[in-house]
Specification:
Rossmann fold, globular, alpha/beta
């Protein structure tokens, strides 16, 4: 496995309240607050109950509620090419009911060339409806080790610059968490899909990318997601802080406008 343990500088203390939180990104302008979210992806999106359901759970647990409604088109093992050709993803996007569409590629399952072909197709389909596309950058894993995390990040950085599209840098957040807290495993037992910690970190990065809000402020008193009770409050705080640092660094390093 081509492991990438990225070393990042510590930027800010993770202790932050909703009142102290600051905007972390500048989302694309929208006529109203984005609330209707569609997820398109494979098992990295639907593992452990589904990120769209967790986004809804987070929304409902916040005070005041964030207002998210989310749905999905998912297929196990599918790349964006498969999602384009063999699912209803394009049709569901074309219905135009969405503010945001989260597009998840799984680069170890496909080629960079295929990503370069079908990523832009999906981005255009989303923008044609007036919705906002966001790329969900996933992670490297043992079963398919032909590509490193750096190469996955580079492919997303290239597309972000070419299409002026936002990226939720989940894979880089995982790498940071693994470097800083190797005891807190991001992977499930199969060393491919997310553990509870990996799922929570993915959710924090994606929601912060959608809203532009500081993920350290997304700390409701109760969040009903199965398995989350196995993590200590300090672990959840650490993961929110990792999400914050990673998005700040990704946004600062990226060249050109969104």
């Amino acid at each position: 496995m081509k492991s990438l343990l990225l070393l990042f500088p510590l930027l800010l203390c993770s202790c932050v309240s909703a009142g102290d939180a600051e905007p972390i990104t500048a989302p694309e302008p929208a006529a109203s607050k984005p609330t209707r979210v569609l997820f398109v992806g494979n098992s990295f999106t639907f593992w452990r109950g589904g990120l769209w359901k967790h986004l809804k759970a987070l929304s409902d647990a916040m005070e005041p509620a964030l207002g998210y409604e989310a749905e999905s088109v998912v297929r196990g093992g599918a790349s964006l090419e498969v999602m384009w050709k063999r699912t209803r993803a394009v049709e569901v996007i074309a219905e135009g009911r969405w503010d945001v569409v989260v597009l998840q590629e799984d680069l170890p399952e496909t080629s960079v060339a295929a990503f370069r072909e079908y990523g832009p197709r999906f981005v255009k389909a989303v923008r044609d409806t007036g919705a906002r596309p966001i790329l969900f950058m996933t992670w490297e894993y043992d079963r398919l080790d032909w590509i490193s995390m750096q190469e996955i990040a580079d492919a997303h950085r290239e597309m972000a610059a070419a299409l002026k599209i936002e990226v939720a840098p989940v894979g880089l957040a995982w790498s940071r968490a693994r470097a800083e807290r190797p005891d807190l495993n991001m992977y499930a037992r199969d060393r491919e899909h997310p553990s509870v910690a990996g799922m929570y970190l993915s959710l924090m990065v994606i929601e912060a990318t959608i809203s532009g809000a500081d993920p350290r402020s997304r700390n409701p008193a109760e969040l009903s997601i199965r398995g989350l009770e196995r993590l200590e409050p300090k672990d959840l705080e650490f993961l929110r802080d990792v999400a914050y640092k990673t998005i700040k660094e990704w946004s600062g390093a990226r060249q050109g406008p969104r």
